[in-house]
Amino acid sequence: MQKFTSLTVQMWYVFLSGAALAITPNAMLGLFDLQLTDEVYTRILGVIVFTLGILYRSIIKSGNRDIIQTTVYGRLFAAGGIAVLALLGFSKPTLILFAGVDVATAIWTWMELKKA
Fold this sequence. Notes:
Helix content is 78%, strand content 0%. The chain is mainly α. It has one domain. Helix 1 packs across helix 2, helix 1 runs antiparallel to helix 3 and helix 1 runs antiparallel to helix 5. It is globular. The model has no long low-confidence stretch (mean pLDDT 94).
């Protein structure tokens, strides 16, 4: 079975981001110069993002190339959506940094898929 290092990196990025948003959301928001909040929604998002990390772990274990390819499309879609929201002024442009990680790991995964 082919090893997808890029997906493992993505998984840990998602786990860490999700945990940080759930446990210390304002630290994450401040890191990217986004508005601090006491609302629970950021923590809920953190739980959902962390759960996505659990799914990535299962995808890695399964080695299913079709699902791995789908993660590439999903990450590119998410990155595009985040970029559009930032460009339309719904957030500060620093939000695009989140999208950059997704684009980078998506391209890396795509390249790993093409090698095999």
